[in-house]
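Q: Here's a chain of 191 amino acids. Please give me its 3D structure as tokens.
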Amino acid sequence: VYRIEGRDLREMIPAFGTVRSDREVVLAARVAGEIVEVHQRLKVGQRVHTGPSEGQKTDLVLIDRRVYEKRVDQAERRLAEDSAQFAQLDQDARNTERLLVKARSDHSAYKQEYERVRKLFDQEVASQSDLTRALLELGKYEDQLIAHENAKKLYPLKRQLLREQEKTHRADRDLAQLDLSWTRVRPPFDG
């Protein structure tokens, strides 16, 4: 009686050839800096996995992040400065509005004074120099009123300039964060 057992049978065929991987990648860092860590399996021919689980990638090479972290901090501070400049601009606008109200009041009062001196001049009670002095004073208050009105008209332009500056600083921050993320060189696929 013979006993039969199931076994895997391997047939060996000796041959010559070249083995090539189905996928190959050349890795390069997108940012410059000192390499502070290299993954232990990063060697030619070694198998590397993208990460222990889906969504987590293995860092093959770590580049010193300190400079890039400082750039992100610097960009964040610029955005904080922009917020402070908006607050300052709003306060300046309120101050200019108060000055404009006062300038209108002063201009109205000196216009009445000029009219009073002109009437006195017409009655030959005031001299030509009194009339000229009153006219010059009225001119000063008109100039002050015009200056405050012009300053008020500039605030929308200043606000637009600050908005554009803030957009630029936001883009700088986003680029700095992107550069910071590139300090980690990761495999694009398992292999």
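Q: Can you summarize the key feature?
A: Residues 2 and 8 are 19 Å apart (CA to CA).
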